[in-house]
Design a protein that fits this description.
By secondary structure, the protein is α+β, with helices and mostly antiparallel strands. 53% of the residues lie in helices and 13% in strands. A hairpin with a 4-residue loop joins strand 5 and strand 6. This is RDD family protein.
């Protein structure tokens, strides 16, 4: 019997023949069929690789792609925050300013866990845009280092107002710490934009990580280190922000507008039952311009009794501690209850607005 020419058969036909052939009687034919199937499979892989084109090297990611991935992750975090807020509204309201710590922990784990070895170095936003966090050798970060990297990135946004919650802290210390955290945010974005050699930001450099474009090609990290001048800028910025915070809290600063707002905020935060406060000076555009509206927003517990009396007390402190309060067209005290965890918030407010003269009349015994 003539030997069949298996080169003329298709892959499916060869598989059918291999399934029904008598391997004991024709072992040499079985070997030939299997060799032919292996050759066809290899040819298919070569064609697929040729169609896909050459593998591009894995280089550091550009700034806009990283920002895009962050925006996607921010949307996902916001959805998580809405769910947490709906399920734990009362508990979060009871936390006051410490609710930001809850958001900080959620965000740190959201970024840290998937960007570690556990998640392959990719958050959801990075997966969508084809990015990955790696070490210089190409491996993923250990969980602890990934969490530290995420914490440095998140701390300024979530915790910058937290020092003011420590009423035992010296006003200078609280202001200096708050501004120092703002300085961390500045350094993160400064390095992201201007460290063009390695595209490593502050949180990347802290753990020795790179953010790369995830491709099939070989790893191609920058060989040059970041410019040393960036280190000087970062150090000067952190010191400068901290010193500015201390300077704004000095006793003489209450005589200028910004220092006066910090002073009012500090004394309002010392009131029992007030868990947060913001002070702003704005302009009444319909009254010839100029900053002539003083707004004090105090976060209080929902069970706070006699809110009107509390509003009068806050107005009294504002008039006493803001140098230009007498020249204001109106002073507004807003009592707010709710929560803010950074990735979600819920507020209910009640406004009390009077001229400085009307407030003084209301404060008469």
């Amino acid at each position: 019997m003539d030997q069949p020419d298996y080169s003329k058969y298709s892959e499916s036909e060869l598989r059918q023949i291999c399934k029904h052939i008598d391997a004991v009687r024709y072992p040499e034919r079985v070997v030939e069929i299997q060799a032919r199937l292996a050759a066809l499979a290899a040819a298919t892989r070569e064609i697929s690789a040729a169609e896909e084109g050459p593998a591009l090297p894995a280089t550091v990611a550009g700034v806009w792609r990283r920002i895009g991935a962050f925006l996607i992750d921010s949307l996902i975090l916001a959805m998580i925050g809405v769910i947490v807020g709906a399920c734990l509204r009362d508990q979060l309201m009871a936390l006051g300013p410490w609710g930001r710590v809850v958001g900080f922990v959620i965000a740190t784990f959201y970024f840290g866990v998937p960007q570690s070895r556990i998640g392959g170095g990719q958050s959801l936003g990075m997966t969508i845009l084809g990015l990955r966090v790696i070490r210089p050798d190409g491996s993923a970060l250990e969980l602890g280092w990934a969490l530290l990297r995420a914490a440095i990135f998140c701390m300024a946004y979530f915790l910058s107002n937290l020092p003011a919650a420590f009423t035992s802290l010296n006003e200078w210390v609280a202001s200096g710490l708050s501004m120092l955290l703002f300085g961390v945010t500045f350094c993160v974005f400064y390095l992201l934009l201007f460290n063009r050699r390695t595209r490593q930001s502050l949180h990347d450099l802290a753990v020795g990580a790179f953010v790369i474009r995830a491709t099939r090609g070989p790893l191609a990290l920058p060989t040059a280190r970041a410019w040393r001048g960036h280190a000087a800028v970062v150090a000067a910025s952190l010191v400068g922000f901290c010193v500015a915070g201390v300077w704004m809290a000095r006793p003489g600063a209450r005589d200028n507008a910004f220092g006066g707002m910090l002073r009012v905020r500090h004394v309002v935060m010392e009131i029992a039952g007030v868990t947060g406060a913001t002070v702003m000076v704005s302009a009444n555009l319909g009254d010839g311009g100029g900053f002539n509206l003083l707004n004090v927003n105090a976060v209080v517990d929902t069970s706070t009794p006699d809110r009107e009396a509390l509003a009068r007390r806050i107005a009294k402190l504002a008039l006493e501690n803001y140098a230009n309060a007498k020249r204001m067209k109106a002073v507004t005290v807003t009592l707010t209850s709710g929560f803010d965890i950074g990735i979600a918030q819920f507020w209910q407010s009640q406004n009390y607005t009077h001229t400085p003269q009307e407030w003084r009349v209301a404060l008469l015994p």
